[in-house]
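re: ur question from earlier - yeah i can do the single chain one, its not a big deal. heres the input i used so u can compare w yours
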Amino acid sequence: MVKRTWARMFALVNGLLIMVNAQMAFGVENVANSVNHGVILQYHHVADDTPAATSVSRDTFKKHMELLRRERFTVWPLPKLVEALQQGRKIPDKTVVITFDDAYSSIYRNALPVLRGYNFPFTLFVSTDFVDRRQKGYMNWDQLRELTKYDATIANHTKSHLHLLRKPEQVTQIQWLSSLREELDGAEACIKRETGQHWRYFAFPYGEADEGIIQAVKAWGYLGFGQQSGAVDKRLLASGMAPRFPFNKQYSDINDFLIKASSLPMPITSEKFAAVVFDKAVIPALDLTFSYDMGKPNCFASGQGAIKVELLRKNIYRVEANQFIPIGRSRYNCTIMAAGKPNRFHWYSRMWIRKEKNRWYEEP
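and the output i got, formated as tokens:
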């Protein structure tokens, strides 16, 4: 299927239309011996009969793991990647971390045998209330303790998987932050008690937070992980919401997976935007400052395709959607082909959240 020509093809990746060099196979050889970044993959259900928005099929998951091995990716535990990034140690090129949110029983039933077969380490972010009450569709503590025998990291996803942004009007900000801290600290204490693990890694439920909550979580001593796409480097890890690539049944194409798993961080030194959460129709303006001149990025908005990118001054670009962002969660995604690295892309993502007529939208 791959022709030995310099023909070009288009690959649709998470709604992004990206030019891809069709001559080279993905990841056959490392482009460098070591780098200063990695990619964190995010899954929820691994099953054929669960909601499409939070699931990959068993077959897709097997193909993903098979490709990681076949294409010679390095699979690390999350703590190893975190330590390497924080200490500035070199990381093998094409290093990935496998994570799951919510501790669904399908992970134990369908994902674990595949992971054990490849001897891949992995991380589960657990909302402890669901495990404590043995809710149907979730693992129990005995199963989670069993996973730790297979190099599983058990980490924090709050007690009840609440929306951290949805503060009731009658509750003060101080009261709300206090309740959020109890959610995190309570889950962390439960995980430590039940499994002996105590990493203080935290995955934001729904990937939602504003800067105030992100900074509060950092002040409480947690390292935060989001659901916006992109590779992670030291700066992004320290930002308080490190990126992870989410996968579901809509985004299960194998080429899509390979492009994302082998992506690189965008060399951005600063980001400027008015807000993350909006109460009305808006077109957010996003200013990105690059550390060096790498050319104009290609940027896309959820449901809109390619959007406007304007050079403001040297190495500073303004990104704006073509029309109002939709109600709910949406993103701007930007990519630039990596120089001298065929089929490798620098990748950046920014999440936006828009309420519905000044009220919170319902989850699908």
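Confidence is low (pLDDT under 50) at residues 1-32. not sure if urs matches, ping me
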